[in-house]
Amino acid sequence: METHTREYVKALSALVSALTVEKLETDEVTVYDSTSVVEVPVEVYLKRWMARGCKDGNVLVGASCLIDRFMVKKPDFKVTGNNRHRLVLSSLIVALKATVDTPYSNRFYASISGVGLEELNRLEKAFLQDIEWEVFISTGNYLQYGAYLKNCYTKLRRKTHCIDT
Predict the structure, then answer these.
(1) Contact 136, 98 (CB under 8 A)
(2) Reduced to 3 states, what is the DSSP secondary structure of residue 20?
């Protein structure tokens, strides 16, 4: 894995972890929720997915932009241990298809993602609807999110938080 890809993996996983809150019994169940908390750390999940499914770290930049777009359009959505992996997966699939000329089939991505094909299709469709099909990422936004991830990685190396609170 290239250096910038490793940096993006660490930064994106830290950002998703920072967004994660505890799921309450009263929280609405969404299409992104699994029946239980996924114990695999997001960073490990991303590393495995990138090693098997997509070697292009730039897809992670697109995914971070799309997650941000999702959170803006769904301000009441709570990222939890039950849904963060599926949210990341959904953003990866959409970012990949928006940036790669010849992506693999969803059947392939499902096989490396730990979900079935029908579920992956359902996640992709829901994510696209939730971001109102706004998949285009301008060069300016792309550069902004790439710089943000690099800055986040630098902060992680200094043992500080990515997100200012």
Answers:
(1) yes
(2) strand
CA distance 78 to 10: 21
pLDDT tens sequence across 4-23: 788 888 889 888 988 899 88
Measure the CA dihedral 10/11/13/19, to 10°: 160
Amino acid (1-letter code) at residue 3: T
Q: Where are the alpha helices (DSSP H) in 20-158?
A: 42-52, 58-73, 84-99, 106-113, 117-130, 139-157
Q: In sequence order, what are the residues at sequence separation of 6 or more whose Cβ sits closer than 8 angstroms to the Cβ of residue 54?
A: 92, 96, 100
Give the C-alpha separation, 70 to 132, whole Å.
9
Closest CA to 114 of 23, 57, 39: 39
Q: Which helix (H) or strand (E) holds 11?
A: helix 3-19
pTM for this model (two decimals): 0.91
